[in-house]
Each structure stands twice: as structure tokens, then as C-alpha cells.
TrEMBL record:
This is 6-phospho-beta-glucosidase. The active site is at E371 (nucleophile). GO terms for biological process: carbohydrate catabolic process. InterPro entries: GH, GH_1_N_CS, Glyco_hydro_1, Glyco_hydro_1_AS. GO terms for cellular component: cytosol. One of its GO terms (molecular function) is beta-glucosidase activity. The keyword Hydrolase applies. The keyword Signal does not apply. Coiled coil: none annotated. Keywords: Glycosidase, Hydrolase. It comes from Lonepinella koalarum. Pfam families: Glyco_hydro_1.
Length: 474
């Protein structure tokens, strides 16, 4: 059998895409609450269009999302029916510290997650909890400039310490910052950064990155001190990079892209800045505002490395080589050998095996795939049932590749959580129609619908996969 008996099969969601209840239970506003659906979404995501408050011209899908805030009992019951061993979710920072800089947390928010985790434990589902999944309280954005400000390190650590203490014995697996490299590509979504016209974006991004890395490392240290049983992971938006051709410039461009993306996990897994990053800072005249103690903090490395994988990426360093592939924040050239999803993401299961090998060779730490899935338009019947064989085909091929990485290549993999195990709001597009789940949620792109939950065909298929520990993929 390829997978260990305690292999963590499950699914994943994020508070800002599923939870809703934004103005309930004492919760404050987060950056992602203010990212609208529609044509302005990408500019807000990138920090190029300022949207610090709601207006009457836009629809904000995260405010209600799929209302898991009120439906979590039913949703967890459905996850348990599938046989989940783990469920990845995030805590909304603004539900615990509504403004972010308070000295005392919001008890109602703490109690909500306590009840949620206890419900999971009732079904023997292991929580896998992300501290910051594209979320920072808007007060910290407005008053401090978000992660560009060193003071946010202390605010984050106070939040982390609060939840580590409160949920000791309930939560063992933690991720500090979701897809931390998205800070470079979608800066407002990833780190609450809005750029003034006079600012050097590159300098601001890497100062914010430094502060996030220090905060993540300090949180890792705090977690281990509070409970030595805690397992702390970092999280990267990953995907192997292919050169567009065998032209040496194309190959060199893939090396540069690897440096660009792996920079974050290189620090989190190794405990220091890599030499290529230091040289980059030197060339770009980036003078980090750092304290000497920061570099000691960075030595507190993670226990495991987690990542999302949806597609591989093809990179060119030669002008005129290939055409750009649409649909993803992380730029890529179209790969003529691969099919694409309805949103232009290229489908490459072997790329997952390659990514697992590259990352395990790089870090020699246990790996955890915490996002993998297919965004597609589903057509439910009159009862809300969806025959999503295309989703089953995608997941089957990726699980088979994952299995080869473990069984043949010797990769140490501790778990696998599919993205959007229940339909939720797409982070990239803000759509409900870009569906990932095993469970259909009756809700449209305008936020209209009954919110009724209906298992799809893939629900029953994944239940069989889990029950067989990945042996039965038929």
C-alpha cells in the first residue's frame, strides 16, 4: 500500500470564501471582504485600485459566501460521511481580533471556532488550520499600512499565541500564511497591500515579505513552546516550471522563476535568506528594515512544507516564444502538450509528481498537498445532483501521480486535501460558477440561491478513495 495508515485524506476551504457572517459575532472587516466581483476585482487584488470600504456599485461575494458560519454542523456531517480524516480551514483573524491591534480577543469569535473544532473531533476529523488565508483586519491596513509595517509582526504573534493556547488539544496541525508567494502577484489579497503611485512596489513587497516571514517564524516558535505536539507548516502556491524550449535562455528563465517563487519556503524551511535573494536585494537596492533578532527568529523552521497544486507552468526567456496562458495570477506561457480547464489552467497530473519530487529534494521535510482541484461549470439536475465525471477524472489522475511520487520516488507525503471540498467563492474570480466541490451549493454569481447542499457524483467517488486509502481510484 502506497499511503501510510494514518495518511490524512480530506478537503480544504478558506474562511473568506466559505464562512460568511462577516458582520456577525463581533467580527471586524478583513481585506478580502472588500474585494468585489466583476471587472475591478483583479485591480483590487493587485493593490492597484483602492477599495477600503464597501460601496453601492459593487457586489462583495465574501460577505455572505456560502454561509458556513450558520451551516457548519451540516457541512461537517457531510465531510464525515465522505470519511474525511482531516479538514483544512482557516481562522478569520478579524473574528478573533476585530481591529487587529487590541490587547484582548473577541470571545464570541474564539467560541465559534472552539465549537467548530469540537464538532470535527466528534467525527474524528483532524483540523488543519491556517492562521492567515489571504486575511488581515482592515484596521491594520488603514492605520498601519498592513504588512509593510513591523508593528504587524507583534499583532500577528499575539493572535497566533491566543489561538494556540485556546485550541491546545483540539488542533495539532497549523499553517501560518496561505500561499505566501501570492504576496508578489496579488498584493492586496495576499498581504493587504495597496500601493501609492509614488511607492516602489518591489521594495514594499519584499519589506512586507520579510515581516511575514519573521512573524511566521516567531509563531512557529510560540506554537512549539505552547504545545510540543504542534506541527507547523508553511504553504506555497506551487507548480513545476518547464522551459518553453531547450533554448538555454528558456531554461535559465525557469531557474529564475524557481528563485522567485521558492524564496519564501526556502526561508521558512531552511531558516535563512538564500544567497540568490541577498544578491537580488543588492541589485534592486532593497534595504530591508530589519532587526538583528529577526535573523535568529528565522531559524525557527517549519515541521512540514505544504503547497497548492493546480497546474504546471511553462516559462520562456526568449522574446516571441509562445503565447501567454490566461487565467492565473502566476504568469505562464501556453503549453501545447496540455489540455486546459474552462478557466485556462493547464491540466498536468505528471506535473504534480514532478512538483512533489522537486520540493522533497529541495527541503527533505514531510510534504502535504493542501489544495488540488478542478474549477468547472457544473450543471445540476432538478434535484441539484451533478454528474461531474470531469472532476473525478482530474482528481483520479492527480492522486495516481501523487501515489507514484510516494511509492516509486520515495517522497514523504503526510496528507492530501482537495480544494473547495464544498462549492465556495473563487478567490481569483469571485464567482460561484467556478465550482470545485464534492457538494453542490445552490448559489449563483450574484449571491442568489437557497444555499441547499447536495452531494455530487464525485462525493461518492472520493468516499471510496478514502475508504480504500487511495487504492481504489476506479
Amino acid at each position: 500500500m502506497a499511503f501510510a495508515e494514518n495518511f490524512l485524506w480530506g478537503g480544504a476551504i478558506a474562511a473568506n470564501q466559505a464562512e460568511g457572517g462577516v458582520l456577525e459575532g463581533g467580527r471586524g472587516l478583513s481585506n478580502v471582504d472588500l474585494i468585489p466581483h466583476g471587472e475591478d476585482r483583479l485591480a483590487v487584488i493587485k493593490g492597484e485600485l483602492k477599495m477600503f470600504d464597501f460601496d453601492d456599485l459593487h457586489f462583495y461575494p465574501g460577505v455572505n459566501a456560502i454561509d458556513m458560519y450558520h451551516h457548519y454542523l451540516d457541512d461537517i456531517r457531510l465531510f464525515a460521511e465522505m470519511g474525511f480524516k482531516t479538514f483544512r480551514l482557516s481562522i478569520s483573524w478579524a473574528r478573533i481580533f476585530p481591529k487587529g491591534d487590541e490587547l484582548e480577543p473577541n470571545e464570541e469569535g474564539l467560541l465559534f471556532y472552539e465549537k467548530l473544532f469540537k464538532e470535527m473531533r466528534k467525527y474524528n476529523i483532524e483540523p488543519l488550520v491556517t492562521l492567515a488565508h489571504f486575511e488581515i483586519p482592515m484596521h491594520l491596513v488603514k492605520e498601519y499600512g498592513s504588512w509593510r509595517n513591523r508593528k504587524v509582526i507583534d499583532f500577528f504573534c499575539r493572535y497566533a499565541e491566543t489561538v494556540f493556547k485556546r485550541y491546545k488539544g483540539l488542533v495539532k496541525y497549523w499553517l501560518t500564511v496561505n500561499e505566501i508567494n501570492i504576496l508578489l502577484h496579488g498584493s492586496f489579497m495576499g498581504a493587504g497591500l495597496y500601493f501609492e503611485p509614488s511607492e516602489n512596489k518591489t521594495h514594499v513587497k519584499y519589506q512586507a515579505a520579510h515581516n511575514q516571514l519573521v512573524a511566521s517564524s516567531r509563531a512557529t516558535k510560540i506554537a512549539h513552546e505552547i504545545d510540543p505536539e504542534n506541527k507547523i507548516g508553511c504553504m506555497l502556491a506551487a507548480g513545476v516550471h518547464y522551459p518553453y524550449s531547450c533554448h538555454p535562455q528558456d531554461y535559465w528563465a525557469t531557474i529564475e522563476r524557481d528563485h522567485h517563487e521558492y524564496f519564501f519556503t526556502d526561508v521558512q524551511a531552511r531558516g535563512y535568506y538564500p544567497s540568490y535573494a541577498l544578491k537580488f536585494f543588492e541589485r534592486e537596492h532593497i534595504d530591508l528594515h530589519a532587526e538583528p533578532s529577526d535573523f535568529d527568529d528565522l531559524k525557527h523552521t517549519v515541521d512540514f512544507v505544504s503547497f497548492s497544486y493546480y497546474c504546471s507552468r511553462t516559462i520562456s526567456g526568449v522574446e516571441g516564444h509562445g503565447e501567454l496562458n490566461p487565467g492565473n495570477l502566476l504568469q505562464s506561457t501556453k503549453n501545447e502538450y496540455l489540455a486546459s480547464s474552462q478557466w485556462g489552467w493547464q491540466i498536468d497530473p505528471l506535473g504534480l509528481r514532478s512538483t512533489l519530487n522537486v520540493m522533497y529534494d529541495r527541503y527533505q521535510k514531510p510534504l502535504f498537498i493542501v489544495e488540488n482541484g478542478l474549477g468547472a461549470i457544473d450543471e445540476p439536475d432538478a434535484n441539484g445532483y451533478v454528474e461531474d465525471d470531469y472532476r473525478i477524472d482530474y482528481l483520479r489522475s492527480h492522486i495516481a501521480a501523487m501515489k507514484d511520487a510516494v511509492e516509486i520516488d520515495g517522497v514523504d507525503l503526510i496528507g492530501y486535501t482537495t480544494w473547495g471540498c464544498i462549492d465556495l467563492v473563487s478567490a481569483g474570480t469571485g464567482q460561484m460558477s467556478k465550482r470545485y466541490g464534492f457538494i453542490y451549493v445552490d448559489l449563483d454569481d450574484a449571491g442568489q440561491g437557497s444555499l441547499k447542499r447536495t452531494p455530487k457524483k464525485s462525493f461518492y467517488w472520493y468516499k471510496k478513495v478514502i475508504a480504500s486509502n487511495g487504492e481504489d481510484l476506479a
